[in-house]
Amino acid sequence: MATIDTPGQGRSKSTYVRPNPFRRFVESRNGLGFLFMLPAAVFLLCFLTYPLGLGVWLGFTDTTIGRSGVWIGFENYAWLFDDPVFWLSVYNTILYTFVASVAKFALGLWLALILNEHLPFKTFFRAVILLPWVVPTVLSALAFWWIYDSQFSIISFVLMEWGWIDAPINFLGDPNNARAAVIAANVWRGIPFVAISLLAGLQTIPQSLNEAAALDGATSWQRFTKITLPLLTPIIAVVMTFSVLFTFTDFQLIYVLTRGGPVNATHLMATLSFQRAIPGGQLGEGAAIAVAMIPFLLAAILFSFFGLQRRKWQQGGND
What we know:
Blueprint: E1 2-5, E2 12-15, H1 21-27, H2 29-59, H3 75-81, H4 84-115, H5 122-128, H6 131-134, H7 137-147, H8 154-161, H9 175-202, H10 207-215, H11 220-248, H12 252-257, H13 269-277, H14 283-291, H15 294-308, H16 311-314
Helix pairs in contact: 1-2, 2-14, 4-9, 4-11, 9-11, 10-11, 11-15, 13-14
């Protein structure tokens, strides 16, 4: 309130002065939250939205390195539809993602359950288990490249010493062996993320629930399936969504280990897109392959969204 003297009157007249609209916006809860989110929004707009839009645009052109392309519509996608190497990369990507994600979830959940028990030096083991995750991907890939070496592989050496095999295994030269080798490397790298995330979820489950179930005569398996697993469902949905996204878009591990070989047996959609766009010079074709990955990524996001609806179960509502 501000007091203003009016000429010709013997008393003061009070009038209300409206505050500055910008100040009111900043002082409101929504306005302050908007200002805090603005830098992140600008960052995502510049480094995510713009490259995504540019990639979609290039997918509809015949752009090559050093030459601006023209609009050709769906010709790149029509050409990919008849390209056997592209469909092989789709098969490899789905196989790689499915097998690696299932293996990471199973082993990660097993490790999380072990680390959630009262074990000696469990803090040390929780720190050690993170090492495969924090080591740079390229260094991990180089280490596995030596492990899978056709002549000096430590795996082949041990198996030959035990008398199980007579000659070194050609890990990266045989198509089936190469697929199994890159999946094993991805599982090794991804287990820590799944295990630590699920361990955090396990520690939020009240111990009193398991104790009460044990007093009622429930077995360990019954307590796991009826108490632990349902309460862990929201965490599993988020963790597996990120795991699928990371695995589906994997590039560094495959590129360092095999570069898509042998005979395109380990080419994923991400590595094939890079090969066609950069070394091959066909930016439009490479962008079209990258855009073809979007429906799969959206499916993973929808899986997370519907999985999170399980939170209603914990709050007493219906799924």
